[in-house]
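Appendix C reproduces, verbatim, an entry submitted by the partner laboratory led by Prof. M.T., so that reviewers can inspect both the input and the predicted structure.
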Amino acid sequence: MLLWPWVFFGAVYAAKGIQMNNHLAKVVTDHPHSTTFFATLIANVVCLLINVLFSFAVIRFSQEWIATHEIVTVFDVELIMALRHQTWPWSLKDIKKLIIRNRVLPVVLAATCIGTYTFIPSGLTSLITPVPFHKNATLQGVELDLSSSKCFDWLEAHNIHNNCDWQVSHTH
């Protein structure tokens, strides 16, 4: 959950971005609000799927954990519910009680998990929202001199199709 956005970002960064085709790029440029809406919608759907899958994993883990422990405390149940529903079940008055031994690490992990889930929609939206960028490359080439009459005669004789959209100019 914590690593896949960074792996995605690294792959896109290494490729220097993913270029859209011209039609899609024009749609994105012409409709920035709709593009942002759909990127956010996709991020929220992904967040919803992650929450459901994580909730199932917490339920399965808690069933196995409770089955192997003889004593289950109210704190244990609150911690499981906090992870399952991605909510903070304790009030500010309970903070002192949470800082006793054997409870600090689970509370910190629950807070980290809840905080991480908070950033999923905005982080994913920022990763998939299209942005304009410019690619630069050095241009190297050799110029051909087609101005001699032999070249014109050869081009006329061989009837080459104009797929490159070159222009014919008659200069004397």
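The two ends are 70 Å apart (CA to CA). Additional entries are available on request from the coordinating office.
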